User: Fold this.
Amino acid sequence: MQLKLTYQRRKTHPVEVGNICLGSDYPIRVQTMANTSTNDIDASVEQARRCIEAGAELLRYTTQGMREVESLREIHEQVLTSVPLVADVHFQADVADAAAQVVEKVRINPGNYIDPARKFKHIDYSNTEYRQELQRLRERFTRLLDICREHHTAIRLGVNHGSLSDRIMSRYGDTPAGMVESVMEFLRVAEDEHFPNIVISIKASNTRVMVDTVRLLVREMKHEKMDYPLHLGVTEAGEGEDGRIKSAVGIGALLADGYGDTIRVSLSEAPENEIPVARDLVDYFADDESPRYDGSVVAEVLDNIGGNAEVRYSSYESDWELFCLQAAAECGRLLWDYKATELTLVNPNFSESKLNFLSKDILQAARVRMYKTEYISCPGCGRTLFDLEKTIHEVKEATRHLEGLKIGIMGCIVNGPGEMADADYGYVGAGRERVSLYRGKECVLKNIPQEEAVEQLLKLIEQDKQ
Ligand code: SF4
Assistant:
């Protein structure tokens, strides 16, 4: 069966972020996040210039406390362009209030906005306690809405798989329903307060979880007559070709659905590298002149002898990097939606073995089959405690033979353990040149010197095998 490749954007209301607008009446915006320390003003401004030159339309900065809010004020003054800045705030509602008076948009995480750091313990809430918690959320969030209204500041509600509050976990577990409800609780307050300037994201490093959850969120919003714009991204996607393919599988599936008003491709690389990847993805789906619509791309679903469907994707794209992105963006969704387990890529410009390797990478990025070690590495930000690219390289060199294992490499202890989600083992920055090692969510070696960490990680994996 040959599939008709169409594109119809989901209708969303406009959200003003400084002097740009997000929403279905506007182009899909591409954005990135700085990985400098926010307090290093010169480095942050320099990096902002490189990102803007690459085409970034929004720039986000980690904002741990009031000192970073003041630094953002300076960065804002120096980045004399039309690109709005976004403060990324976790755990401290007061910092979100202050940042909302300085930059054009504030990202808060519903999992930790009023809740303390997760304890990964199951806590039972009675119905009364649960209602009281919701009331506390309402009172605190309304204060932020008032500040944002006064200063014309937008908000992103950014949920990440693995960083839900203990309260949501107690009712829903770490599930798509839990992630969606954690957003809906905030949106109901915003609706009551008539505050529409909100964008939503739900991210996961598992592309399937991310896509299923965003689709569920859209259904829930529609059910409650809401049309908030969406920010799409696969979190902790990693670096290099694997990171690009994983991002394309997740973001592409949702762009093909017509979802997404802004996207960020999170790579464990310099942030300016993310922009061309994001632009290529947007253009593939949303540009009328994309090869997707001129008949040169053919997507088919075939029944094979075993009864499983096979997806076949054919294209004449002659640029290998573009072909990888486009095939990944199209095929992950088709594999899931047609319950297919085989993927054949056809392109006369490339060898069969190259195409076979790519099809395996796409199957793995879609978590349909595992062929090699899976890496879940954060993109780095102002909290990163080591040279991320060098560390990822070292961990990969030592562990690439461990087919099927999922290894998290995270820059900080604050968000790392939660956000490496379903990793089997985690290598997490615990302090300057200090690392903590995790087995699943359990910290098994705390604060060890970084030069010993790779060896200790291998020892741990070996011990567990016995
Ligand atoms: S895990 Fe920590 S260092 Fe990595 S991007 Fe998230 S907050 Fe930044």
Remarks:
- The chain has 14 helices and 18 strands.
- The first helix runs from residue 41 to 54.
- The chain has a mean pLDDT of 93.
- Residues 51 and 326 are 23 Å apart (CA to CA).
